[in-house]
């Protein structure tokens, strides 16, 4: 009983009240200021059923309002809304909003692509003091979480495992990472509608920008511009091709991607068919 009481007290250190997320909310008096307030983003498509189970556990332990399913809400909209509201509450003299702004940490559960997505969103916010990001290794390779000491194996989704991870987040030391940013412009004829690729069909690492206007002297054609980033390391070529093929196949056939081992098998299969280890027999040039 005492152990359960201590854990509930510990969870208060991560808790963010609902009014912090509400655009029309007013300042509220609170008795406790959390030492490590967190926002949690979970890609429920990652890790087979693990992502969904992890979402349920986090929402049971924390405020439902501070845990987000990335299939339902994108991190850019969530964070823009949060920071706009926090700034408004700070102007109204809300002490809790000021402390949450200063102490906030983000947790992202997913693969390397999901982690890169959130890092890109945080970078685009152009904050003076961006919140540190902890990565839950919920993908197939999990190279990014492994690079920063969060492990490589998919995590447990039970209450005890989540509480243990929250403790690690609270105790973690903030470090900086290298990043590279790229801009890609795609042209199309003037008479073509050239609609941009839908956000849901883009890799998480890319963000679409507006069309170049007709009057632009440097470009007599319409074009769309996409901005992307690499985090900690970058890679181009066949591994990117295989990663995107894996992402596309998982969207089409989620039932084939049930756990980390089966995901790794699918990844290996795609690598072989696209010629990682030998010329691909399915490639047009091999016929």
UniProtKB/TrEMBL annotation:
A Pfam family per the record: DAGK_cat
One GO term of the biological process aspect: phospholipase C-activating G protein-coupled receptor signaling pathway
Domain of life, per lineage: Eukaryota
GO molecular function: ATP binding; ATP-dependent diacylglycerol kinase activity
E.C. designation(s): 2.7.1.107
UniProt keywords, alphabetically: ATP-binding, Kinase, Nucleotide-binding, Stress response, Transferase
UniProt domain DAGKc: residue ranges: 33-186
GO cellular component, one term: membrane
EC category: transferase
PANTHER family with a match to the protein in the record: DIACYLGLYCEROL KINASE
Family the entry assigns: Belongs to the eukaryotic diacylglycerol kinase family.
Protein name per the record: diacylglycerol kinase (ATP)
Organism classification: Eukaryota, Viridiplantae, Streptophyta, Embryophyta, Tracheophyta
């Amino acid at each position: 009983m005492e152990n359960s009481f201590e854990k509930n007290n510990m969870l208060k250190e991560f808790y963010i009240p609902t009014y912090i997320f509400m655009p029309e909310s007013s300042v509220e008096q609170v008795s406790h200021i959390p030492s490590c307030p967190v926002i949690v983003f979970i890609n429920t498509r990652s890790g087979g059923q693990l992502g969904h189970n992890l979402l349920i556990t986090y929402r049971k332990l924390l405020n439902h309002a501070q845990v987000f399913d990335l299939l339902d809400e994108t991190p850019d909209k969530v964070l823009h809304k949060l920071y706009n509201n926090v700034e408004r509450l700070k102007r109204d003299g809300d002490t809790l909003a000021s402390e949450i702004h200063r102490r906030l940490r983000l947790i992202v559960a997913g693969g390397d692509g999901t982690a890169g997505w959130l890092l890109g969103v945080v970078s685009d916010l152009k904050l003076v003091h961006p919140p540190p990001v902890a990565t839950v290794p919920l993908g197939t390779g999990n190279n990014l979480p492994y690079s920063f000491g969060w492990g490589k194996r998919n995590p447990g989704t039970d209450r005890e495992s989540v509480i243990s991870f929250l403790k690690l987040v609270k105790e973690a030391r903030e470090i900086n990472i290298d990043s590279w940013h790229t801009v890609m412009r795609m042209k199309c004829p003037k008479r073509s509608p050239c609609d941009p690729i839908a956000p849901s069909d883009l890799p998480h690492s890319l963000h679409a920008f507006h069309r170049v206007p007709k009057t632009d002297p440097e470009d007599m054609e319409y074009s769309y511009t996409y901005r992307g980033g690499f985090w900690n390391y970058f890679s181009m070529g066949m591994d990117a091709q295989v990663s995107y093929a894996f992402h596309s196949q998982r969207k089409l056939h989620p039932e084939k991607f049930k756990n980390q081992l089966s995901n790794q098998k699918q990844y290996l299969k795609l690598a072989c068919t696209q010629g990682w280890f030998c010329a691909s027999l399915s490639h047009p040039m091999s016929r």
